[in-house]
Amino acid sequence: MPQPSRQRLAPEVFDLPVEKMRAGWYTDAYFNHARSTLLADGRHPHVVVQVFQKNDAWLGGVDEAIAILKLCSHAPDGLTIRALYDGDRLEPWETALTIEGDYTAFAHLETVYLGTLARRTLITANVVRVLEAAHGKPIIFMPARFDHHRVQAGDGYAAYVAGQVTGFEIGVTSDEQASWWGGRAIGTVPHSLIAAYGGDTVLAARKFAEWAPPDMSVTVLVDFENDSVQTALAVAEALGDRLWGVRLDTSETLVDRSLWEEMGDFRPTGVNERLVRKVRDALDAAGFGHVRIVVSGGFTVEKIRDFEERGVPVDAYGVGSSLIRGANDFTADVVMTDGQPSGKFGRRLRDNPRLELVT
Predict the structure, then answer these.
(1) What's this model's pTM, rounded to 2 decimal places?
(2) CATH 3.20.20.70 in the chain, residues?
(3) What top-level class would CATH report for the domain 125-324?
(4) 168 burial class (0-12, 13-18, 19+ CB within 10 angstroms)?
(5) Which ranges in 217-271 belong to alpha helices (H)?
(6) For residues 96 and 87, what is the distance between their CA atoms, to the nearest angstrom?
(7) At 262, is the pLDDT very low, low, confident or very high (cuts 50, 70, 90)?
(8) Local structure of 340: helix, strand or coil
(9) Span(s) in the chain for CATH 3.20.140.10
(10) Which candidate in 144, 239, 266, 281 could, as Cys together with 243 as Cys, close a disulfide (CB 3.0–4.6 Å)?
(11) 83: part of which helix (H) or strand (E)?
């Protein structure tokens, strides 16, 4: 498996609300209260904070967490930060990050750097697993419509990191998702454009192809009339070599018209193996072997793995909400205070030689 990049993103990339973070606005109140108590007492303990999680995972969000510490702490030059890199493989309990310095300088940031690591690692790990299940076939990262817009940039970068980890292709669907790494959003002819042309998929596809830049891979949804085989053929005939692919997105509550006479020995709803094979066979028979098949709608790592094991002729997968589901929580502990062990019972300093000093 390829090694992730050893370069870190500059803190300025993340466009953090620095003043609010430095003021503790996003922080659980008890951390702010703890800091205020120490300051009122004139106490400035020199601590080592250790950050870890409990799963087999791929790390995400570490550059963003470092940016939070560098830009939003008080007297950041007094902090010593050691960390792994985005995309590094993590074992349960392995130390991913340590922060050493005056605790009052960064006590107010624990909530935000832990939340950042939790969210981004969840996305990175989920996308790595999907990319591996797809055996190198491109994945389109499509969860933007299922979550708040403010998570797009970081989630898109976490997906990009997963692509770097595996060496496989990952595409994102909004420019914001691609903004941290200088990529570009991709997209197909949507149902809404087809509806705007009165439900005429071929007309919508023609108009889209006329508008699209020459280097755009024109891909058309073909399930609008619930007749994917015939619609795919009609679009292929209309666009010829300009058509890169067709996308099957049949609702999990519907059975495509091409399967109505075949039901009885398989689950016919949604995008299923039989439907994909019928579309592929029809395109090949009509001389459109160059047209790729993209599938979407309810795809998870398990469904992709099943398709791949069965050799279903899919060229790319669109995956949405399953990539943002689950949890990958991180914990931070003060484990050393003024040079002495100070972790709570069951917690101790766990040295990790893989950590690198952050400059």
Answers:
(1) 0.93
(2) 125-324
(3) alpha beta
(4) buried
(5) 228-239
(6) 11
(7) confident
(8) strand
(9) 11-122+328-357
(10) 239
(11) strand 80-83
